[in-house]
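dumping this here so i dont lose it
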């Protein structure tokens, strides 16, 4: 039996990750490149990687995850807060017409959870919440092992859950969203407000490890609001697992102690025990490309 391969493309506000993925979840030719700042450069890069992969393997289709909303009826991209030049573009039609391959697209968080369900949690009846900590904070929901889609563009907006009505300004224009404290842009604002300088996540972790006293209010602010968000998710869904993915998920082990203390204080009922498993995706930074490819491989 011939092995089935798909191209998985995970488009983020900061970078584009891509790979060829087999039906068994084996990853080939993984690439990670900074997201272009205009549509022409984006289209050129997309053509390059599709041609590169297409010429190396027997590709059955292309799956794409995007950090926004898709109108599946018109195949139009209707909302992308961090890549505005893609709004109203019909990438699916362009790719299918040019390469004569099936192209499927979904929200990036939905893709990530879809990949976990396909490659890791087959035939599960678990309720799983996934949070993506990238440029922004995305989310997806699986109830009893089935990916949940709402009645509007299939996006679960847990990152836009307001946890402090007088809180920090979010990129969506409102105040106090979870995203304002856990997305990369929100974290950068918190760091800038406290240190008067920009530092990377890697540098922040380095300062946490050295117990730099300047970092304490930053860690406390992020941890507290993340803990409130997790408690809200627990109180609403009572999930079996909450899974983190995205580049900033590496912060979890440094935020975990304070965040879980806040979680316990605000969870309904038991104040001594957390029954929900909270962990980072076992697929790490490749969760998105596996998820995008799973859109094709699962059909």
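and the seq i came up w/
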């Amino acid at each position: 039996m011939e092995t089935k391969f798909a191209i998985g493309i995970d488009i983020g506000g900061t970078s584009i990750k891509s790979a060829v993925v087999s039906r068994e979840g084996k990853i080939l030719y993984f690439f990670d490149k900074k997201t272009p700042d205009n549509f022409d450069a984006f289209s050129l890069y997309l053509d390059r990687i599709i041609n590169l992969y297409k010429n190396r393997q027997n590709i059955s289709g292309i799956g794409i995850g995007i950090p926004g909303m898709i109108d599946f009826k018109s195949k139009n991209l209707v909302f992308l807060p961090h890549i505005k030049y893609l709004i109203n573009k019909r990438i699916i039609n362009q790719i299918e017409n040019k390469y004569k391959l099936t192209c499927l697209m979904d929200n990036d968080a939905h893709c990530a959870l879809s990949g976990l369900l396909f490659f890791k949690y087959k035939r599960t009846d678990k309720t799983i919440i996934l949070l993506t900590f990238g440029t922004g904070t995305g989310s997806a929901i699986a109830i009893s092992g089935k990916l949940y889609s709402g009645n509007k563009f299939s996006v679960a907006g847990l990152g836009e859950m307001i946890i402090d009505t007088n809180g920090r300004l979010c990129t969506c224009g409102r105040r106090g969203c979870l995203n304002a404290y856990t997305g990369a842009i929100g974290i950068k604002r918190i760091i800038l407000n406290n240190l008067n300088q920009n530092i990377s996540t890697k540098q922040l972790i380095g300062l946490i490890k050295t117990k730099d006293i300047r970092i304490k209010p930053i860690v406390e602010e992020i941890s507290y609001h993340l803990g409130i968000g997790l408690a809200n998710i627990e109180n609403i869904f009572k999930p079996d697992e909450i899974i983190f993915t995205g580049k900033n998920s590496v912060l979890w082990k440094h935020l975990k102690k304070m965040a879980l203390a806040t979680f316990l204080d605000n969870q309904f009922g038991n104040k001594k025990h957390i029954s929900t498993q909270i962990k980072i995706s076992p697929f790490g930074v490749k969760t998105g490309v596996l998820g995008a490819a799973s859109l094709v491989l699962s059909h």
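The domain at 124-281 is CATH 3.30.420.40 (Nucleotidyltransferase; domain 5).
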